[in-house]
Each structure stands twice: as structure tokens, then as C-alpha cells.
Amino acid sequence: MSSSNNHTLVLTILVASCLLLVLTPMLFKKRTKWSFNPENKHVYITGGSQGTGLALAKRLAAQGAHVTIVARTVAKLETAQTEITAACRSRDQQKVQYQSANLCNAEESARALRDAEQLMGKMVDYVFLCAGGAKPVMFSEGTAEDLKGEIETDYYTAAFTAHAAVKSFRTHPTPSSCRLVFVSSICGLMGLTGYASYAAAKFAVRGLAESLRMELLLYGIRVHIFFPGTIYSPGYDEENKTKPAVTKLLEEADEGVTPDKAAELLVRGIEREEYAIACDLTGNLIRSLTKGAVPANRTVLDAVYASIGWVALSIWRRNADKIMVAERHRGSGAAAASS
Ligand SMILES: NC(=O)C1=CN([C@@H]2O[C@H](COP(=O)(O)OP(=O)(O)OC[C@H]3O[C@@H](n4cnc5c(N)ncnc54)[C@H](OP(=O)(O)O)[C@@H]3O)[C@@H](O)[C@H]2O)C=CC1
Ligand SMILES: CCCCCCCCCCCCCCCC(=O)[C@@H](N)CO
Q1: Which stretches make up the Ketoreductase domain (predicted)?
Q2: Which of 28, 65, 199, 283 has the fewest CB atoms within 10 Å around its CB?
């Protein structure tokens, strides 16, 4: 081997070692800033009467939070209030209350937040926007009301409460301790047969959250967004009653989690100061591939996810499209509900 070859080899090894030294901690480093602490905070959870919102409420109550849940149906709110109270770390030091409101309405959303603060005697600290729900339907078979309904249920419920919350946060003694947490969906990252109007609304939530993440740096208010796949909630059971068969088939690629697991993963993501939070590998591949200009969770790992996602999602999509074309040939573009 000539000496110039030797030099090249040594140089290559040197450069590779340096890269490894720099990249390894980026890959494996855990963020150590644990400033998320629900203890003694006023936590406001829309959609807190069932499913993910309820699971989250119980989890945060167990960590010492004061909780307000918001939804429309009073009977469900009362049952949930009892369950959350039972989960509290210290029942005589924590308060659990509810507000009944239709959060598609701006005035009611603002009123519910104001009343909750008054009743609690404490401004809201953490606001979780879990209210929502899908009504999957083939686009051509749905009504104009279905189109409006998804925007109301999934976008306005988030936007109006976010608006009221940010106004309150700005008068909070320490706005930089406040957090605003949106709940989108994998359908807020990619569209899917049967979810046209739902995905549109969940993409809208993403645009809102993404703009606010940057804008609210002005006050130090932190924003997060959750992109879960299937969650086995009461809402999921309900939507499955009318879900097109082909949508069910396409969804099989995603394993799904219980509401309690979803809440656990959401909290873990917040503790790690992640802006965009996904549930599992599939979620992380799609999240990283469609990241845009938001901060990565772990720079190198997200780049690896994005590269794998580029290949994996292309393959998945080819198959999904084949399923759709096969449906066309079966003449069941109108694929009706139930499996
Ligand atoms: N389940 C799933 O597979 C997935 C769900 N998601 C999202 O996660 C969030 C939670 O879903 P999930 O756990 O299924 O919960 P559920 O669908 O089981 O519960 C929805 C909650 O939102 C409340 N809600 C709905 N509409 C309104 C409204 N207009 N005003 C006030 N409250 C309202 C409901 O109460 P009430 O009806 O009494 O008002 C209920 O408390 C939703 O945003 C959903 O889109 C995302 C991905 C997957
Ligand atoms: C290896 C790469 C594979 C890629 C697979 C992609 C699979 C997509 C499955 C999407 C599942 C739908 C989740 C959201 C559903 C939802 O939000 C509603 N149920 C709301 O209630």
C-alpha cells in the first residue's frame, strides 16, 4: 500500500470517527429539560368526558393537577368527573370540575373557559384540545352538512378554545409556563379514502398549531400537536358503525392503541419537549417524512425515519391504490358500511 493511500485511509477513519462522535449523542440523547409538571396546575381538557381526553384527565389528576373537562353531554361529564376524582393523588387538595359547552361555537367556547377559571379560582395553565371525532363517508355520498360538520367538530372546536386560551395565557403571571396542546391525527398528515372531510379538518388543525408554535414564541407559550393513529375509544366504535368497508381495510396497516396508551404517549412527548408527537413507528415515519419547517424531535433519527418513510409509504400507497382500483372493478365504489 502506498503512503498516499495510507494517508487517505487515516483521514477517512478520522473524519468518520468525528462524525460518529457528533452524531451518536444526537441520535441517543434524551432531552433533560423536564419542565412539564401538572402538579397544582389548572389543566383544561376539551373532549374530556370520554376516550383519550378522559384517559388524559385521569393521568394528570394522578399527577396532582386540578382538572376541568369540557364536552356537551352532561351525563357523561358527571360520570367522568367521578372517575377523575377517584384518580386524584389527593382528593382534598385537588379540584375536578366540568363545563358543558358546544365548542363549535366561539362564544360558548370563550364562556366555558372563563367560567372554568372563575369556578376553579385559578387561570388555566395547560390546555388540551381533545374534542373531535370522525364521521367517515365516501365523499360523493356525503352531504354538504357532513363537510361542514367535520370542520366544526374537528377544526372550530380546537380553534375557538385555542383563541380563548391564548388570550388568557397572555394575562397569566408566567405565560412561559403555559402550554397549548392540539390533537390532530395521522389523517392530519396524510389523506385516506373515506376521510376526505375529516382529513381536511385535521390538516387545518395542523396549520393552526404550526403557525401558533412560531407566533406564541413571542410570549414563551409552548405549543404541541399530537398525531395518533387509531385509538380504541367510544368515538371509534361509533364511527365504525358507518365506516366504508374499504376504509376499514386500508386502516388495517395501523395497529392502534387504547385511549390510556394514547394519553401516556402524548404526555411522554410533551415531557420530552417534542412539538409534533406520534404514537408508534408508523406515526413517526409519516410525521418525519412530512415534517416541513417544524423542529425535529431528534434531528438524525427523524432524518432516518424520513428516509425509511419515503420508501415504506410509497410501497404502502401502491398497494392502497391497487385496493381502490380493485374496488372500482368490483363495481363497489359505493362500498357500504360494516365488515
Ligand atoms: N379514535 C381514533 O381512532 C382517533 C381519534 N383522534 C382524535 O383524538 C381526539 C379524541 O378522540 P377519541 O379519543 O376517539 O374521543 P371520542 O370520540 O370517544 O370522544 C370525543 C369527545 O369530544 C367531545 N366533543 C365532540 N364534539 C364536541 C363539541 N362540539 N363540543 C364539545 N365537546 C365535543 C365528546 O363529548 P360530547 O359528544 O358529549 O360533546 C367527547 O368527550 C379527537 O380529536 C379525534 O379526532 C385522532 C386519531 C385517531
Ligand atoms: C410502514 C408504513 C406503512 C404506512 C401505513 C399508513 C397507514 C395509514 C393508516 C391510517 C390509519 C388512520 C388513523 C387515523 C384515524 C382517525 O383519525 C379516526 N379513526 C378518527 O377517529
Answers
A1: 41-224
A2: 28
pLDDT digits (tens, 9 = 90+) for 16-62: 665 766 666 555 555 545 599 999 999 999 999 999 999 999 999 99
Catalytic member of 202, 275, 291, 305: 202
The number of beta carbons lying within 10 Å of the beta carbon of residue 125 is 21
Q: Per the domain annotation, does 14 fall within a domain?
A: no
Given the residues 44, 198, 275, 305, select the one marked as catalytic: 198
Nearest CA to ligand 2 atom 17: 185
Whether 198 is catalytic is yes
| ipTM rounded to 2 decimals | 0.99
User: Considering its fold, how many domains does the chain have in total?
Assistant: 1
Tell me if 278 is assigned to some domain. yes
Please give the residue range of the domain that contains residue 278: 37-329
- Considering every ligand atom, which ligand is closest to the CA of 263? 1
Per residue in 277-315, pLDDT (tens digit) is: 999 999 999 999 999 999 999 999 999 999 999 999 999
287: amino acid identity, one letter: R
CATH number where 279 lies: 3.40.50.720
User: E strands along 8-118, which residues?
Assistant: 42-46, 66-71, 96-100
Position 195 in a domain: yes
Strands in 222-227's sheet, in edge-to-edge order, are 96-100, 66-71, 42-46, 126-129, 179-183, 222-227, 276-278
